[in-house]
Design goal:
By secondary structure, the protein is of the alpha/beta class. It contains 5 helices and 10 strands.
Length: 254
């Protein structure tokens, strides 16, 4: 992990290091690389019939690409594409920008998956399949509209990075963050656009290895001091740019 990833998240785009690589649209553009970025939907130059055929072609072709280790979908991901991806048994990283996926069941086939991002996916019905990913170190979840109980994630004790996010205009409901007390290997924990009955920081204080914290709720000065005292490794925390930003505001407006 780079220092930038520790501060801003594992999936931070870094084009200088081909992370992700340039996208391709058609299966015949694939040349055997281990890192692949697919943009095969939302192709405005295609008729609906040709678009549907392209998705079908990728769904049939993907399972044959056995050398892929890191995969990005930078346009909409269908259930069909997702299920085909789950046949890539060497896959280590998967980043889905947004999707209409309903079932995650087939992800249990990805025994070596370490890095996972599932962007805005309001139709997902259960997160239970994620509990089978025992090697998972990075998990980003965004806008799981049908899910509010994330306690099952407590079994993913190898996690080092965890992000739970709402959508651009929709808050993600979370019943409780108590489950994170079991995730003691976390070095990065981020929440944005969250609705939760309990906004207290007590569960966070159990994360003694934490380096980066982005908390969805306002923190009092007392809470900030408590975080600094209890979490000795914490370097990047909410409001870390507060003083710098205040200086800019004063300089701009007097």
């Amino acid at each position: 992990m780079t220092e930038k990833q520790i501060e801003h998240g594992f999936w931070l785009w870094d084009k200088t290091n081909d992370f992700p690589p340039d996208s391709i649209t058609y299966p015949n553009e694939y040349t055997g690389q281990k890192k692949l970025n697919i943009a095969c939907t939302q192709r405005l130059h295609l008729t609906p019939t040709k678009q549907k055929k392209l998705v079908k072609d990728w769904s049939q072709f993907l399972p044959t690409c056995k050398d892929i280790e890191m995969l990005w979908f930078t346009t909409h991901t269908t259930q069909q594409l997702f299920d085909s991806t789950c046949k890539l048994d060497k896959l280590v990283g998967l980043n889905i920008k947004w999707s209409s996926i309903k079932s995650l069941d087939d992800i249990s086939n990805l025994k070596d998956l370490k890095y996972l991002r599932i962007g805005s996916s309001a139709k997902i019905e259960s997160i239970k399949p994620l509990t089978t990913l025992t090697k998972l170190e990075v998990l980003v979840i965004e806008n799981f509209k049908k899910i509010s109980d994330f306690s099952l994630l407590a079994t993913l004790t190898n996690l080092k990075f965890l992000s739970i996010e709402g959508g651009m205009y929709t808050k993600q409901k979370v019943n409780s963050f108590e489950f994170i007390t079991k995730l003691t290997n976390l070095i990065y924990f981020s929440t944005t656009m969250i609705s939760c009955p309990d906004k207290g920081i007590d569960p966070i204080l159990k994360l003694k290895n934490l380096i980066t914290l982005n908390w969805s709720f306002d923190l009092s000065q007392k809470e900030m001091e408590k975080l600094k005292k209890e979490l000795q490794n914490l370097r990047y925390l909410p409001h870390r740019y507060y003083e710098e930003n205040m200086k800019k505001i004063k300089a701009a407006f007097g």
